[in-house]
Amino acid sequence: MIKVREIMKRSVVTIDPELTLADVAKIMTNNRIGSVIIMQKTKPIGIVTDDDIVGTIAMGKDPKKVKVGGLKKKTRFVTASPDEDVLKVTKRMVKTGIKRVPVIKDGKLIGIVSDKEVLLVSPELINVLSEKLKMRVGAVANPDQVISGICERCEAYSDDLRNIGGRWLCEECR
């Protein structure tokens, strides 16, 4: 089984919790990345993603005034060990709906794993992820609910799946 240490990116951009979302957006754009890790001295305490920035702006908040240390996240801060199996971490990512997991060893940040690294080294996990997702979405009964996952018609990933006639379809296939 592939271990996290074999696929993680070792270069991770970190930030101070006192920075604003506008500052973080510039850092992420300049580094061409989708997330940064919030550090309290030498301890990783959270993650800011491009989704956090977009969500804050969508709620009408000024990104120049919102400090990243004060962001309220929908999911808890999920991390991985470098010695964990990629499959185990991937299942945790699917379950919590996250795309990036910081890698921590002895309390220190040593890397990051995203869904892209997982799929690059282990495309066979797509089937595992797809089956896991089908089990998860099969339990959802509310037809008005929007979820993320794989469209059952075109098989593309979407953050806007809706249950139409018992099938989860993306915006293009509805």
| SS class | alpha+beta
- Calculate Rg over CA atoms: 17 Å
Q: Kindly report the oligomeric state of this protein.
A: single chain
CATH architecture heading of the largest domain? Roll
CATH fold-level name of the largest domain: CBS-domain
Name the CATH class of the largest domain. Answer: Alpha Beta
Morphology? globular
Provide the CATH superfamily of the largest domain: CBS-domain
Largest sheet: 3 strands, mixed
Domain module count = 2
Q: What fraction of residues sit in β-strands?
A: 25-35%
Mean of pLDDT: 85
Helix content: 25-40%
Number of helices: 6
Number of strands: 8
Strand order of the largest sheet: 1-2-3
**Topology order in helix (H) and strand (E) letters:** HEHEEHHEEHHEEE
Q: pLDDT under 50 segments (min length 5)? A: none
Cα end-to-end separation: 38 Å
Explain what the structure shows.
With 174 residues, the chain is of the alpha+beta class. It folds into 2 domains: 4-121, CBS-domain (Roll); 142-174, no CATH class. Helices cover 32% and strands 25% of the residues. It contains 6 helices and 8 strands. The strands form 3 sheets. The chain has a 3-stranded mixed beta sheet with strand order 1-2-3. A 3-stranded antiparallel beta sheet has the order 6-7-8, covered by helices on one side. A two-stranded antiparallel sheet has the order 4-5. Helix 4 (86-96) runs parallel beside helix 6. The N and C termini lie far apart (38 Å). The model has no long low-confidence stretch (mean pLDDT 85).
